[in-house]
C-alpha cells in the first residue's frame, strides 16, 4: 500500500532535530515528525520537591509539562491558563512524558536537583506525544552533557535513550508513524515507548469502534521496533550536533517557515 504522502507502510515521516533552539534552557531541541513540530526544553534546578524532603527520598526528581500552542492547529486552541485548568489530554500526555524519562534517568545520580521538561507543540499533524518523548530525551542528554562539562555531575543520569512512535491499522494494513489524517481514520491507533534496547516503557493501544487481532498487534509491534531503532540513531546524531550551536541556516529556514 502506498500512503497518501507516498510513504511505504513501514516508513517514518521525515524526522529532524534542531538542537539548542532555546538558548536559556539547559538543553533544548526542535523536533519534527513530518509537519508535527515540538520544542522540547529542559531546565535543571537545584533542590527537590517538598514531598521528597518530607519523606527523605534520596536523589532528585524529573517532571514534564506539555502544551499545544494556540496556533498549533487549524482552529485556535485556548491556552490552559485562560481556562484556569489543564485539559485532560494535556495532563495525560505530560504524565506519559515524565514516566518515559524517569524510566531511563537515574535520579540518584542526578543528586538533589529537579529536571523540568517543557514540550510545546508549534504545529500538530499527529504524533505530538511521540515527538515530545523522543525530543525530550535528546534535550535531557544535551542538558546532562553540559552539567558534565562544567563538572556539576560526575556521571550522566541518562542510562539509555528512549523514543516513541505510533503505529496503527489504516485501510486494513498496519502502518508506522501516523500523520493526522491517518490517525483520524485509523481503525486501530497505538503508541509504543521503548528504550534503545527495545525494552518497553509503555504501550497505548485501542480500537476506534473496532477490534484488532493478535496478528495485527504483532505487525504494529514489528513496525514500532523498526521505527524506534531509526529514531535512536537520529537522536544520537542530534546529541552530537548539539556540541556546537544550531547552524544559522537552520534557524533562518525555521524563521522563513513560520513567517509564511
Describe the structure in your own words.
The chain is α+β, with helices and mostly antiparallel strands and 260 residues long. It has a domain at 15-74 and 88-160 and 228-246: Ribosomal Protein S5, domain 2. Helix content is 37%, strand content 27%. The chain has 8 helices and 9 strands. The strands form 2 sheets. A 5-stranded mixed beta sheet has the order 1-2-3-5-4. The protein has a 4-stranded antiparallel beta sheet with strand order 7-6-8-9, sandwiched between helices. Helix 3 (88-102) packs across helix 5 and helix 5 runs parallel beside helix 7 (214-241). The two termini are 33 Å apart. The mean pLDDT is 91.
Chart the SSEs and their pairings.
Elements: E1 15-19, E2 27-33, E3 36-46, H1 50-55, E4 61-68, H2 80-83, H3 88-102, H4 107-110, E5 113-123, H5 128-149, E6 162-170, E7 173-176, H6 180-185, E8 188-195, E9 200-207, H7 214-241, H8 248-259
Parallel strand pairs: 4-5
Antiparallel strand pairs: 1-2, 2-3, 3-5, 6-7, 6-8, 8-9
Helix pairs in contact: 3-5, 5-7
